[in-house]
Amino acid sequence: MIVGTAGHIDHGKTALVRALTGIDTDRLKEEKARGISIDLGFAYLPAPDGSVLGFVDVPGHEKFIHNMLAGATGIDFVLLVIAADDGVMPQTREHLAIIDLLGIRRGVVALTKIDLAAPPRRAQVSADIARLLQGTRLADSGIVPVSTVSGDGIGELRRHLLDAAPTIRTRAIAQRFRLAVDRSFTIAGAGTVVTGTVLSGAVSTGDRVVVSPSGLVARVRAIHAQNRPAERGVAGQRCALNLAGDGISKDAIERGQVVLDPELHAPTDRIDAAFTLLATEPRPVAQWMPARLHHAATDIGARIVLLGDAPIRPGGAAPVQLVLERPIAAVAGDHFVLRDTTAQRTIGGGIFLDLRAPPRRRRTPERLAQLEAHRLGDPERALAALLDISPHVVDLVAFARDRALAEPTIQAIGERLGLIRAAAAESVYALSPAVWLRFKRDLLASLQDFHAGNPDLPGIGLERLRLQLAPRLPPPAFRSVLQGLAQAKDVALDGAWARLPGHEVRLTPENERTWSGIAPLLGGAERFRPPRVRDIAALQALREPDVRRLLKLLGRMGRIDEVAHDHFFLRATVAEMVEIIVDLTAHAPSEDFTAAQFRDRVDNGRKVAIQILEFFDRHGVTMRRDDRRRVNKHRLDLFRRPTDDENGAHHPGRESSPVGRPDFKSGRGREPVLGGFDSLSLPPR
């Protein structure tokens, strides 16, 4: 159990910790000279059962509230210190408000300096404390009178803390590891050491970790947990980690960073949150109001974006978006506190809801409904609620990462909800069974309607089909779904087209013979400069209108493309030219290219090269600005031929990765569905 002190300056917090543990937490020379705590102090109390209680002693002066906040995050039990002679003071109230905003529910009040107050005064202050605690999370907390001078009440308070320790709810050891850094220093012979509270998960010696948001990779050489050497540190413990790695140093790791499981490294600078404005604030929160965000041990500038129509009035609560000065490492469900930019008062606080907040369309009914789902604290309930509302699809990898959920946890949730998943690259997209069945039926119905209206076309374009369906899956997930449906023989894929298996546009035997003579003219070494219709007609002794009609039909079938008037290229050649354009862009520092560069790569004349590029411009594959062009990555698949290597697709004869292709299964009396969670593991980063 981690015990954190709170209270006004000079109310005896440090002296009380010293009386309880025998350790003086004032370690700085300035602290000893001035007789006040400036930074965080730490102490430990062994318990009879062999466990250890950790103490975080925080400064009480209003100038050092930012240090108090760095220590308050991660404590399990608050020791609210109020002097009997002074009574309730300004920082008493502010610290109590912070405790409430951080969601700390367990604690005890130590009524200190009772040797300086007569019984009537002590009774009056006790009554004031009871009124102060009403309506807060500590409303049921007891009051223990103590004196560090006479020793009265110290034993009773120590017993109270030791008795409370076993009742504290065990933290999320099953989650992935996070430690909020509050100190970084160097020990001779050991190297860099960081200390902090383990917020979730566990870490062992030899583990690979990442310092976030900087991204430094380190190895854990040694661990001290609760001031004792250990092989493992777990959630709810104060730990010191001896780290080693490239770039790891005392100066490279500072307070506010988080040492975490590599899978969790995904810093964010835009967060949607549930926010409560303290009733003591003099004015409402307006749009784009600046503030200081305190989260874990981080202190960073932020702007408040209101997601409602009206300002948030004192005592009110509403969803907001926090736009940060720079990215931080966080987890959905973490508590935060906001203070004013002058660091003179606490404004309010709340809980992070979604770490991937959108910069646009953030106030739509659809988005606000998603935030209501995110408010559900239980991950399983939140995921089920998200899948029931638009867009009805969730990236499970991001969902698990942003909640620090370990692989077995998200796997168990998926099994209980019966989710349908589609693996694509580093993501695993999930749909509910009901949404999947509706999606599949709509997809097949769309193909059937398209064939009925376009019997001479080979199929519908993949992007056009994707945009017709709901939910509108991300392109990688949609391609993964189509790959699975094709393997199940529900659809057929032909280049950039999708069709029903029974639909085919066939050439007549006469046209097949004619095409067999024309096709070699469009391929081979001359594929980038094929003959035009009139030249083909002359070479094959055919009527020009007949050649044009046949090539137009083959274009509708997706086998060739009319790049310019009467100038047809094989679809495979067009796909090859797309790859050339991508390669040109990839090797250009400015990520663009000229017509001359493309002409040289295809060894063609300038006129034909320009016609080819204008063809790509018309279809949105390239975007021209002056004499240079850039690639539109969202349109590349228009002419690319799907490959088995894309997006986690299945490779025949090769073992699938843990998140390989969607595993389509069919059972008696039910439709085929994408694979369940029997083999789910998150993709390697």
Summary of the model, kept short:
This protein has 685 residues and is of the alpha+beta class. It is built from 19 helices and 32 strands. Residues 643-674 and 676-685 have low confidence and may be disordered.
List the helices and strands and how they pair.
Layout: E1 2-6, H1 13-21, H2 29-34, E2 41-46, E3 52-57, H3 65-72, E4 77-83, H4 90-101, E5 107-112, H5 119-133, E6 143-145, H6 154-164, E7 178-187, E8 191-200, E9 202-204, E10 208-212, E11 216-225, E12 228-230, E13 232-234, E14 238-244, E15 258-260, E16 268-277, E17 289-295, E18 298-306, E19 317-328, E20 335-339, E21 346-354, H7 365-374, H8 379-387, E22 394-395, H9 396-402, H10 407-417, E23 420-424, E24 427-431, H11 433-453, E25 460-461, H12 462-468, H13 475-487, E26 492-494, E27 497-499, H14 509-522, H15 533-540, H16 544-556, E28 560-564, E29 567-570, H17 571-586, E30 593-594, H18 595-602, H19 606-618, E31 622-625, E32 628-631
Parallel strand pairs: 1-3, 1-4, 4-5, 5-6
Antiparallel strand pairs: 2-3, 7-8, 7-15, 8-14, 9-13, 10-11, 10-15, 11-12, 11-14, 16-19, 16-21, 17-18, 17-20, 18-19, 20-21, 22-24, 23-24, 25-27, 26-27, 28-29, 30-32, 31-32
Helix pairs in contact: 15-16, 17-18, 18-19
